[in-house]
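Tutorial sheet, problem 5. The two components below are modelled jointly, 502 residues in total.
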Amino acid sequence: MSLHKFIHKNVVLQYNHFQLLAISSRKLSIIPSVYDGEQDPGPKFFSSGVQALLKRLTRPDFSKVFRKRTNSNRPVLKTPEYKFLTNEELQSEFSKANKTAARLLQMPPVVKVHQPINEVLSKDPALVGYDNTKYLFTDITFGVPNEDRLIVERDPDGTLQMCDHDTRKRLNQGRKVREPMMFADEEKLNGLLEAEKYEYILDRACIQYEPDELSYQKVTSITYQHVDMKTNYKLLRSTRHFGPLAFYLTWHQSMDNLMLELLQTGVIREAVLLMGLRQAIHEDIAFASDLNALVHQVLPMPVQASKPDSLSEVDIQLDNQCIDCVVKYIAKNSAMKSQQELALQGFREDYQQMVELSRGLRKAHGEA
Amino acid sequence: MPLPPASGTGKYFARAAKSIRLIRQGCTNRPFFHISVTHRRRLNSQPVIEQLGSYDPMPNFNNEKLVALNLERMKFWLGQGAHVTTPVAELLGLSGFFPIHPRSYMTAWRNRRTERENLEKQKEAEAAATSKAE
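Model answer (structure tokens):
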């Protein structure tokens, strides 16, 4: 081969390489933001008030919570059983189902990223040359939990030190030693995101990582941002990942798109709960006392899966209070004022019609 | 007769001398050791009193040698007056549980010496090669 040809081939190769890079960088517009700041999100996330708000915002729908799953642990699907039950038995079955749902919807914790471990126990330069491999020592004393297990390494240069998190994780086992390709290869993760397999990604991340790991927080952050960008909140509702999603968006002050979606779908009460969440996390809402009172009123109300058939006067009064609150929020705190105002306007018109209809119906029935 | 369990059968005489030693378990060309406590006068092929850990002398994919130690039971048997053989004492020394064993230091400086000598030989050979070429 002549030199000229060789150079030409090389240049073509480089050009192709460059093109590939350009494509991947266009797709990778999401920059993950993790919980690594001064403030620890853990105490806020675990506080009972925030937990109640997040669980309610999840909007659990039993047909989705108890849907059929392709689960490797349960190879045989049970045939459904039909029974005649008394009212009391039915109530106990309902409470059982509620408990199971609460377990299935338990949210993965949101905590700060862990700090690297560099605790050197001793340095012994006289051991240089003893061996050219590392020695890892694990204490296998019975009854010690994996996170408290003593794991140390002796390096070839004679340093004895505590192992870092990745080594600890490898030695403690319990999950795949090599990272799955979908997390290791960004292209593959992008493919899954494009296919909107959010729940699959988040479930797999829960299995593979600890919640305080940097990789976990990066993967979940990218997924949450993608959901937010595409307004695909519907796909994560009534799964255990909606709470952390709402928390993430509120924590990073970008929950206005979610608020807009709530207003557009006409779930005004949840919009108030989302404002309550913002107040609980950031405490930056001016009408805090009104808001908190309203949140306390809304929380015990049942979840509205679909539009109600008729509205009682109590409902109408509560909804009007919610609308007032949202108006104040849009005026003072919102980052998407015009869109949210438009959505609220649309909701108000619909709502007015519904109110008139239900009042008319009641009149026709002679109830009012 | 079935093999005794790797964790040991636990049968022993209270007053007899014990020793904590490496017991080879792998197969041909693949050494693997259990760290076990057994009677001093017993053979390595006989059932042990208790297994206290393991040692894999072949480096793994990440160039690491893995050692597992049940430190709680180790302390118990040391308290009972069990003897520790040199290879185990070396491992315990490297782990920071014991002071470093003198033999570890000996191995280290012997390895360093061999390396130094090899380097010198290599240099001499290179010098000889260059002088020949001239």
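Marking note: Chain B has a mean pLDDT of 93. Full credit if you identified this.
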